[in-house]
User: What shape does this take?
Amino acid sequence: MKMLPNNGGVFGFSLSKNGNTYEFTTKDENVMKRWVTELKGICILTTFHEEYKAIKMIGRGSFAKVYLVEAKSTGKSYAVKAFTKEGIIFSNKSNAKVKNSFLVTPYR
Assistant: This one.
């Protein structure tokens, strides 16, 4: 989930999945805040794709993929493990817990 800039009294956010982006807007800021509150449990608010460029997939596990990415600001390369909530929920990994955050470690 990515918040859209306030544009002349129009509030909103966009959701992206599988290369598709959908924008949701309203003139009522309280409505937008309610939408965001409800969606935060199933969406991740991130600027990851603005800060990093995916180079290639370098690994695949049972419910995650590992990508080689490059920081746009520094050019440094990192390995990033990308989980999908659906993958974890449907993988029968009852003891797995994922929070709405990410950890970036240097790729060597």
